[in-house]
Amino acid sequence: MWYALWFLLVTGHLALPWAMRAFARGGGRLRWADPLRRRAVDLYGTITIALAAAAVAGMVAAPGEVTAGFPGVLPSVPSTTGMPWSLGPALVWVGVGAVIGVLIPSLAARAAGRPRHRTRGLPPRALRISACAAAEEVIWRLVATGALIHAGMSPVVAAAVCVPAFASLHVPRHGRRVLVYQLAFGAVLALTAALGGVLAAAVCHAAHNLRLAGTTAVRPRPRPTAPVRLPSSGTW
């Protein structure tokens, strides 16, 4: 029952951006849906957060043996108090995740010759952007990866399978040109979750998206070309 619920949640989220693109291409046949089309990004975020909340509620309600082996929210470093995790490494990994999340889009933009410059203040709807990023990590790095582990996959294979699925979420809106970037970013998130816990991956993802939303890419100015020297009129 629990695995069927998580399977429906994960596949529903995987299909969500594709269904929204098909809905947006409906043209003018559904005039009542025009406000939804204009707020597609907000709608995606709301549904993603709701799916993640449902997944977490299912994990809390499920018996312990069902969720045993799922990726940890915090790094598995035993503390001196007997807890299965220690606050120090958890905070370190949260900080590492934040730094990585900021650096990835900055370095990628600079490598592409289009450095990003920050706008003033926090991006609009920063809280929603962060919540949506964290929800995606819950769905893909926690629920999807954990369900695949229980299906018999090794943790490494399960995490690797989720990377291309995560990358495909961005194709309907941004096109196939973002696949390489999103595959690399998904791999970084999977590695961060494996080493530092899903919370660190969620912070990394949120920092990444906030960096993109709070900066603009600067197009390089074309270099001025030297004027063409004309032969003197005496040689015409």
Automatic annotation (TrEMBL):
GO BP annotations, alphabetical order: CAAX-box protein maturation; proteolysis
Keyword check for Kinase: no
Pfam families: Rce1-like
Keyword Membrane assigned: yes
One term of GO molecular function: metallopeptidase activity
InterPro entries xrefs: Rce1/LyrA-like_dom
Annotated CAAX prenyl protease 2/Lysostaphin resistance protein A-like domain residues: 133-210
Signal peptide per UniProt: none
Keyword field: Hydrolase, Membrane, Metalloprotease, Protease, Transmembrane, Transmembrane helix
Transmembrane stretches, start-end: 6-23, 43-62, 82-104, 149-167, 179-203
Superkingdom assignment: Bacteria
Protein name as annotated: CPBP family intramembrane metalloprotease
Natural source organism: Streptomyces calidiresistens
Taxon lineage: Bacteria, Bacillati, Actinomycetota, Actinomycetes, Kitasatosporales
